[in-house]
Amino acid sequence: MRRWKVALIAVLALALGFGLGTLRPIVDRPPLVVGQDAVTDAASASVVVRTENVGGTVLHILPTGERRVALILYPGGLVRPQAYEWLGRALAARGVETWIPEMPADLAVLGKGRADALVERIGPGTPVVLAGHSLGGAMAADYASRHADRVHGLILMASYPAQDVTVRAHWPALSLLAERDEVADAAAVRAGVGRLPAGSRLVVIPGAVHAFFGRYGPQAGDGVPTVSRADAEAAILAAASGYLDAVR
Fold first, then answer.
1. With bands split at pLDDT 50, 70 and 90, how would you rate the model's confidence at 12?
2. Angle CA 12–17–21, to nearest 5
3. Model's pTM, two decimal places?
4. Over the stretch 136-174, which tens digit does the pLDDT of each residue have?
5. Which one of 68, 90, 125, 228 counts the least CB within 10 Å of its CB?
């Protein structure tokens, strides 16, 4: 009997150690470091980390001139906000103010209402566009489906609304699909456009992969790109800029 107890304790200890080892990368997330993943020509953009009156920690990228539109970008699953700083910096010269919220455990499904405090902070008079990559896009679509009157647009990057989510609004959305993406189901992304507002369109980023939307390194299961990251980012920026320029 004693041997069984010792064996049981050993198994439980092993299981606990394995569980802690598995959960640690999720619970203990890397620090949010400004500029670490965002070397860009738009070096003059001001980027700060804010924590007051924004519902939590958020990466805030100010426009280089007059603010014309505000972009709230939900990160992909287990991806840090700084991975998308490159896009916010690049958009700053076009009058776009970007807010990238840090999600609980870096999972937007645990913080899909983060836009509430940010919309309040931005205030009336400035149109707000919601965006998201992968899981963050699905949660951004969920938020937009329930608060279409609070936002003025939606950009989905390698993402789509859940099957039970339909976004009904007076504004069209933009869906971006990486041509070589092996993480997001291309058929699901294309079908998801049908659950977006009338006039929404799909733009395919030639040769790009899932991980090219954010600067967080390669992703397991992703495809093999046929273009450089720089070319893919230029195409993503062009599509997003064209959409944001039309927001009123």
1. very low
2. 150
3. 0.89
4. 999 999 999 999 999 999 999 999 999 999 999 999 999
5. 125
